Amino acid sequence: MILQRLATAIRKQDWFTVLIETLIVVFGVFIGLQVNNWNEARKDRLEAETSRGRLIADLNADLDAFAVRRQWYAEVQEAALRVDDALRSDPPETIDETWGFVLDSWIAGGEWPFEPSAQIYRELQNSGDLDLIASGPMQRRLRDYYEDSVNEIETLTIFQSGYRDVSRQLIEGRVGMVISDCLSSAPSPEPSQPGANPDSFYENCPPPEDFSLVLHSAENLRKSEALRLQLNFQLSKLAWLPSFLDYIDRQAASLVTDLEATR
């Protein structure tokens, strides 16, 4: 209709009407584009809020997982220190002391791999939605957390002490089966609910019926020079782990705080 009136005005050389009709067309197009931009901006804000919430939830899950790992590795370190003390002392005299030494020797080789959960971060990165929620500096911090920290963890796990393999070779197979069955029946850790986790992940497992296997395992462990060397390396690794967990924990907590501040 407007185009028809515009064509008629041009034929009549009614330039005032041409001007008015042209302005109406231009204004209509402008309003249409502006409304479309508003809708796109609103859609981007909603997507950004959803993406930011998913990323924050992922980071909070990491914080919970780190808290559980910290407790678990603290128990492994305590077991390793007891083994170190036992190897520097006279042989155990009682059944309980002997079994405690063998059990600690097994626990001291415990490993529970961990790394930040990068699933949501990767999804946002691949879809391009990361730009909606993070500026350049924030994106660099996210990259440091999700990529550089993973590389550091991989470096840590590559240089394993070897204590785990040596200790399990020295402990009689049937004894190892009893320990594995006992530990696997313990309550499973719940990283998302640290307060629901047991006070101790390692219960006091009962020894096997044939205690001669325990005595032989204890003798093997005490005589092994390789075990002593690998235990030193294991203790060094376990001493460094808490500091590293604290480091990536601080990274995650700082990211959560700053992402929530932009909501």
Give an overview in words.
This protein has 263 residues and is mainly alpha-helical. The protein has one domain (2-261). It is 77% helix and 0% strand. The protein contains ten helices and no strands. The chain has helices spanning 2-11, 15-87, 95-107, 119-127, 130-133, 136-158, 163-170, 173-184, 211-223, 225-261. The model has no long low-confidence stretch (mean pLDDT 81).
Brief rundown of the structure:
By secondary structure, the chain is an all-alpha fold.
H/E element string?
HHHHHHHHHH
The assigned structural class equals: mainly alpha
Low-confidence stretches: none
> How would you state the average pLDDT, rounded?
81
The CA-CA distance between the termini, in Å, is 46 Å
Overall 3D shape: rod-shaped
Strand content: under 5%
Quaternary structure classification: single chain
- The DSSP helix count reads 10
SSE arrangement:
Layout: H1 2-11, H2 15-87, H3 95-107, H4 119-127, H5 130-133, H6 136-158, H7 163-170, H8 173-184, H9 211-223, H10 225-261
Question: What structural keywords apply?
Answer:
10 helices, single chain, 263 residues, mainly alpha, 0% strand, rod-shaped
